[in-house]
Each structure stands twice: as C-alpha cells, then as structure tokens.
Amino acid sequence: MMKLLAGTHAEVREFLIDYLEHALPLLKRWQFRLHLLLCKDCADYLRRYDTSVKLAQSYLSDPPPPELVELTLKFLEQRLPGPDGAPNPDSR
C-alpha cells in the first residue's frame, strides 16, 4: 500500500465518516484533503460513498406510497404463519 505524506488509503476509509461530518481535527482534515487531491482512487471512493449516503437519505425521507404498504401487508399475511404457528391456508 502506498504511504503518502497525507495518509494511507486505509486511513482515508477509517476517517471518512468523521470527514463528511466535519468532526476531524484541523490538521487531520487538511491531511485528508491533501490525500484526496493526490489520490484519484480515494477521491472517487469518497464521491461514490457520499452519493450513496445522499441517495439512501432521500429514500428514507419519503414515506412509502399507501399502495406499496397495502401490497406488502397482504403479501406478508399470505406467507407468514398464523398466531398458532400453523401455515396460512391461503398461502398456496
């Protein structure tokens, strides 16, 4: 693994969340930024990670459509065993 003045690839992954949440001490933040400037792989990794987090947050912020909830509940009712543990007779 290539060791840079600004840290290693493993350190970038280790401090990624703290970096995105602005929780790194100033010196470590500057080292992190320097590494990202020098290392295309880590910069790409950070970009993909950040995009994934934002995408997941956007899906979690919107409630599911009522139709989806209804279909999911019907599906589960048909497939899950009843309260006595017996299979649901309608599940076939």
Number of strands: 0
Number of domains: 1
Count, helices: 4
Report the mean per-residue pLDDT as an integer.
80
How widely separated are the two ends?
55 Å
> SSE string, helix = H, strand = E?
HHHH
Major sheet: none
Subunit organisation of the chains: single chain
Cα-atom radius of gyration: 23 Å
Taking pLDDT < 50 over at least 5 consecutive residues as the criterion, the unreliable ranges are 1-5
Structural class: mainly alpha
Strand content: under 5%
Structural shape: elongated
**Helicity, in percent?**
55-70%
What topology emerges from the helices and strands here?
Blueprint: H1 9-20, H2 26-38, H3 40-61, H4 66-79
Helix pairs in contact: 1-2, 2-3
Walkthrough of the structure:
- The protein is mainly alpha-helical and 92 residues long.
- The protein has one domain (9-80).
- 66% of the residues lie in helices and 0% in strands.
- The chain has four helices and no strands.
- The chain has helices at 9-20, 26-38, 40-61, 66-79.
- Helix 1 crosses helix 2 (26-38) and helix 2 (26-38) packs across helix 3 (40-61).
- The longest helix has 22 residues, at 40-61.
- Mean pLDDT is 80; it is low at 1-5.
